[in-house]
Amino acid sequence: MIRRTATFVYRYRSDILEQLLMHGVRPTPQTPPELVHDFVSDLYRYELRMLRARLLEKQFPKPEYYGRVVAVRNRYRVLALKPRQWLE
Q: What pLDDT, in 10s, does the model give residues 15-50?
């Protein structure tokens, strides 16, 4: 018995692809947006954890922490959208 699986083609919005590329992420038309969203979300959380670790190591003063968190959040604006909104 040959089992065929359905292949979906996802058409990502060009502005989303540009934002993803800034994070080194280049999904193919077969890559589900939920998978990409989860990956970028993991990157975001990793950056926040590293920032927190740097704060605890006193690599910068505590009053700068909030601004640095906001800067990281601004680099990941793509996460404010649901994965289905990434598609045309």
A: 999 999 999 999 999 999 999 999 999 999 999 999
Residue 2 has which token pair?
Answer: 């040959």
User: DSSP secondary structure string, 21-32?
Assistant: HTTT----TTS-
> Can you give the pLDDT at residue 7?
80
pTM for the predicted model, two decimal places = 0.86
Report residue 12: phi and psi, to 5°: -75, 145
> Do residues 13 and 86 touch, judged by C-beta distance below 8 A?
yes
Instruction: List the structure tokens of 48.
Output: 């926040």
12-47: burial string, b at 16+ Cβ within 10 Å, e else: beeebeebbeebeeebeeeeebeebbeebeebbeeb
